[in-house]
Give the backbone structure.
Amino acid sequence: MATPCATLGETLEQQRLRALYLTAMRKRFKAEINRFTSGAMADRLSGQSDVADLNFLMSYVHGYHWLRHNVHEDYRAELLEPFVKTKQGFLMRLLHQSPAIDVFLRGYIEHWVAAPAEAPIQRNQCLALLASAGGDPDRLISRILALWGQIDPFTSSYAVAYRDLARDERARYAGLLGPEDQQRLALVDALPNPPEAVDAFTFPKLGLIPAMGCPQTCRHCMFIWRPLMKDTPDPQPLLDQVNRLTRSVLFTGGDLSRKLDSFYQAMATMSEVSTFAILLNGDFADNPEVTRATLDAMAAALNRRPRHWAPARVLLQISFDEFHQEVVIDRHGRLKERIPIYKIANIVEAAPRYGDKIQLCLLHKQNALNFSMDLFKQGVVERLVSELGERGHRVEILSAAPSSRTKRNPLKPEQTAAPVVKDASFVLSRYPNRPILFTSSTIDAFGRAQLLDETEAVRERDLLQQLLNGHGAGGETFDIDLMFWFNGWATLFSAVHICLGNVYDDGMETVLRRQRKDPLSRALQRFDLRLLDFYRERADDLDEIIARSTGPHHLFHTITEQPAMRLHMTERLLAA
Ligand code: SF4
């Protein structure tokens, strides 16, 4: 039986989470309404002659469905409460109380028909729509419903949409190293070999993927379906080969928290590597003791290295953003943080104790807050600072550097592009000489991220347009360094679907030669626009792909996802 203290603690925690959930959802709702009323709905209805009259009403039809698609019914009334006091109060009541969209529409029409003539412009718009329906509310409602049917983005629940995306991802992996990829690799192998072998330590970094899989379901995750990697061989031979190719390795692949053995093994056996980076979601840090035990194990693995080996350190990369720390509703209807902020605080609190051995870096996803120092005063950063504050820590920002490129604020896309806060560092005042790094990047619409609200993440559409206009990608490249999976696959950092073979079957030398010779990898690396022409030769959906692409990486990733297209592009590049 729960003790009274535990019950009180749980109640207070639920209250805290409720406030966070409602604040986040209100912001999303408001941003969505603003986006639609200020242009997004007009774009969708551009074929309608009375789009100006339709715009406001249809934006709220979108809002009605958005609320039901995204917000648990237990929280809708409270979410809308602050807006009830505004001049749109009647709309908020309708949004909440209407059991169906036609009831909402009828209430909307009746409200404006009964309103005095000096009412806001929405009254005139509604009356104009009604007049065009011959004064018949039923006809107007039928028209609105038919229009909505043409643009409804919520036809599938998240569960169904994710299932469909997972099916596509699974099919993509099924094509990996299939007949077309083999044919493609045979073409690459037939090219003359480079005169010299690969130099030692030629790669600035290499990836290692011990396993794929993650129990979390972050809304921005690019992976939904992941290939099982059971019974992979002992990784030591692979680690030994990678040891002579780079000074820096990155362990990644879903959540490795419970699969750290090979990471420790690498630190203890890779004599030439000096940076052992690992990307974790922080979920392991249940309490200070577990956190210290995990970091102790990393430090101990470093200590096992003979003294005459290269000095090495761990670069501990922890995901930390509005999505990993999002407040969600579990299957019992209770609120929870997906990965609780206290776990990140446990890591931030522990890492400085390890001095130079473990460098912590928080990896963040850019959003509207990145456009000012509000980034450090609101949202997930503010939650972390306040959690650390409760533990007696003061956070001091040491540096905050802007991105080299300007970007568009997703909440104000009409404004001129501006720099974002990209990299920063901070210390806990108790450890003034142990900076913790913070770096942020954009989210492309891969996997689940396809279903994010447009206002939730910074995109790279301006950069894409610049590239398509022939002005290059501003120094951005498609990363073709290699990732080695423990099942033997060798794929590109920026594209897990482009596989240059299996090191166990084909041999490391062959894979490395392919990476240097593969015309497709090279064309991707420089975002070669000829690939778009080659794509058009075999498919007729390039314009749609470009329209939904969130940046150059996304576009070039998408057009190479089919094995037959990869083969075609390789053939065309070779013939050029
Ligand atoms: S984003 Fe990271 S933590 Fe979230 S589901 Fe994907 S791999 Fe897991």
